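Quick one from the shared queue. A colleague (R.T.) flagged Methionine aminotransferase as missing a structural entry in our internal table.

Convert sequence to structure tokens.
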Amino acid sequence: MLPSLSVHSKLPWVGTTIFTVMSRMAQEVGAISLSQGAPDFACSPELIDLIAHYMKMGYNQYAPMEGLLALREQIASKTERCYGFAPDPVTEVTVTTGATEGLFAAITAVVRPGDEVIVFEPCYDSYIPAIELCGGKAIRLSLEGETYRIPWQQLKQAITSRTRLLIINTPHNPTGSILRKPDIDQLTAILKDSDIFLISDEVYEHIIFDGEPHYSIAREPLLRERSFIMSSFGKTYHATGWKVGYCIAPANLTKELRKVHQFLVFSTHTATQYALAEYLKKPETYETLPDFYQEKRDKFRQMMAQTRFRLLPCSGSYFQLGSYAHLSDEADAAYATRLTKEYGVATIPVSAFYKEATDQRVLRFCFAKKDETLEKAVERLMRI
């Protein structure tokens, strides 16, 4: 008999993601899910028809590893239209299997054992595991207070000779904060004379409110020369399950990213790429998104004003944070569980976005839902 085999985990602190846990719990108890960041309304029928068309046309084999050229050309055109910069679609644009795969490929491309990577918590849950799998060390800085601004002085102090990479996210998940021009100026001043790489996670680039512009790193020559810029068609086109994203980076960085990308997934679903290449020719498909989601944000905030939650600012993304610190001393994970089981509304505890589970008694609500879903959820939350 073989001896018992044990695995020395590379990620001993990682368990099943909170998104899986809360979504499963919501299904088990029949709760309304405002937890995982996935719309419950349909994506464009035209886009679905386009995918079906290209599948029937026989585009069902491997796409090029770097992505369909027609799609990369449209991504470059969209980037120029939105941000005044046209990346080279051949050498500077890569289609990825969702932004998460692109993030992993970018981190793996540049982070070596012993390197330090600065991240801002709360942060998307894939950042730190990817850093640690590469042998890097995540240097975690907390965003400031309830505004969730970057602590610029702390960032300056955190940079050492071992700092290899900095990761930013705007609009920000889970907080809904955004970077504005003064922030970009601060970032440029800090990085311009360094050899630090930058990942700019911009998957919610078109979900930004109150007339604010999205300050993509693509706008900034001094920053984009060191940057991997990530975006996601799943977020833009209400189709998170398709897992199609892209990365814009200078040719030398793209070359290294593709070395990793080709051995992670090789390529991304072919017919979907053809469909997106055609659909992107209509700028209104993404330019109307801020108004669409602002209407949902405003309606959700108006309804939530009737509950006892205290809402925090939300300038972008489709997430709204709510504090219950004045209602309960329960830990946020326990409170979210009780909310799901007793009141029938599933949320995400924000402590899940901190490696050490920092608990400020704040929950994340996703408002990318049908109006009737939001209305029913708020009716239940009003009972608290």
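The mean pLDDT is 96.
The chain has 15 helices and 13 strands.
Added to the table.
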